[in-house]
Design brief:
There is one protein chain. By secondary structure, the protein is an alpha/beta fold. Helices cover 50% and strands 17% of the residues. It has 16 helices and 9 strands. The protein has a 7-stranded mixed beta sheet, with helices on both faces. The protein has a two-stranded antiparallel sheet with strand order 1-2. Helix 4 crosses helix 5 and helix 7 crosses helix 10. The structure holds S-adenosylmethionine. This is SAM-dependent methyltransferase. It holds the Pfam family Dimerisation2-like_dom.
């Protein structure tokens, strides 16, 4: 998928340099965006902008403009002709594309410093980057709502960008299934629970998550007049001795199982199976990277090291074929798979085997 084009030796060596200098390109691209340089050059796309014009318009030094624009030129985001900078399509996407923006913010504010500790994280199977930057907790999840404001905004921005893109279609699908009782495991700030209960008259959704997230979800539900239909049970979902509430029509897990390693996934699926009534189903929503387009696969594969260094040291973005094995190990079987939901997501509907 990624290596179809044959490169000449010099082209391959240039690609290798882009990787070797990736952190520098990344930081310069971010500041070209955040200082408004890309936008200014775009607005003056016919005439181009000199270093002096950019420095004057944005009230920054000519030295800063030179440093950032020269790196911008080297990465293919800017063109330089007759001492004037012009924006390229890559530069245009770097400051206008929403996916690029959430990825960049997530990588800067959440991942950048902690990724320095990827080595120990991999060897010691713990999020050493989290421990060096934000918290000594075992995983990032209990402290999500206490992260520094930029990190918190970027984490939730990243999470919501990818799940919001699927929720419209998923709510439409799920509201037609006649579900009365649903557990939303890892329901986060309640976006799906609120969406589904708003689209139906008799569905009740119980969110299982850390207390910080449940409090936010219940407050959000109350604001929409949905108290009593969106409920919450705070729990540490990694404590596999605690059963989920039983006799439900469905267990919903959206962008949740990728937060765990294989053993925990199988245990969570077993507990989900035990919660179902006879006709109940487990609904898994994941952006599997083997079911995605090349841009989606690239983003998903490169999200995995965040799980290693910052989130928990054990999990990753999975392939659908890996998840199918976990489903079988938990005594379930895949009844139906619906792909191409929003941003490369797949809904896997599972019943008791
Ligand atoms: C990536 S978010 C997914 C949120 C939401 N389902 C969505 O589709 O956007 C994972 C959620 O799982 C929760 N979570 C992860 N590990 C947990 C644990 N051990 N106990 C309780 N909640 C946990 C997190 O707090 C977070 O709300």
């Amino acid at each position: 998928m990624f290596n179809d084009r044959k490169l000449s030796g010099p082209e391959a060596l240039m690609e290798a340099q882009k990787i070797a200098f990736a952190p520098i390109l990344f930081q310069c691209a971010r500041l070209l965006r955040d200082y408004g340089i890309f936008e200014l050059i775009y607005k003056n796309k016919r005439t181009g902008q000199s270093v002096e014009e950019i420095a004057k318009a944005l009230n920054i030094t000519t030295y800063a403009v030179q440093i950032l624009c020269e790196t911008g030129y080297s990465m293919g985001a800017l063109d330089l002709k007759d001492e004037k900078y012009y924006i390229t399509t890559v530069g245009y996407f770097l400051f206008t594309d929403e996916m690029t923006k959430v990825n960049m913010d997530f990588n800067h504010y959440v991942n950048y410093l902690g990724l320095y500790n990827l080595d120990e994280s991999l060897k010691e199977q713990r999020p050493a980057g989290l421990h060096e930057t934000f918290s000594k907790e075992e995983t990032i999840y209990p402290i999500l709502s206490q992260l520094p404001s930029d990190a918190k905004r970027s984490w939730f921005g990243f999470d919501h960008f990818y799940s919001d893109a699927t929720f419209g279609k998923l709510i439409e699908l799920m509201s037609q299934r006649g579900i009365k009782t649903l557990l939303d495991v890892g329901g986060n700030t309640g976006k799906f629970a609120i969406g589904l209960t708003s689209a139906t008259t008799d569905t009740t959704v119980t969110i299982l998550d850390h207390p910080g997230q449940i409090n936010v979800a219940l407050a959000n539900a109350k604001e929409k007049g949905l108290e009593g239909r969106v409920l919450g049970e705070p729990m540490d979902l990694l404590d596999h001795t605690v059963a989920f509430p039983k006799g439900v029509d469905g267990v919903w897990m959206s962008q949740f199982l990728d937060c765990f390693g294989p053993n925990d996934i199988v245990n969570l699926l077993k507990r989900s199976r035990n919660a179902l009534n006879d006709n109940g189903r487990v609904y898994i929503v994941e952006p599997f990277w083997d079911k995605s387009n090349p841009i989606g696969s690239f983003c998903l594969i490169n999200t995995s090291p965040y799980f290693t260094a910052l989130a928990n040291g054990k999990s990753k973005m999975y392939r659908a074929s890996e998840m199918e094995k976990f489903v079988i190990q938990a005594g379930l079987e895949v009844e139906e798979q619906i792909s191409d939901l929003g941003f490369n997501s797949t809904l896997m509907i599972c019943k008791k085997a």
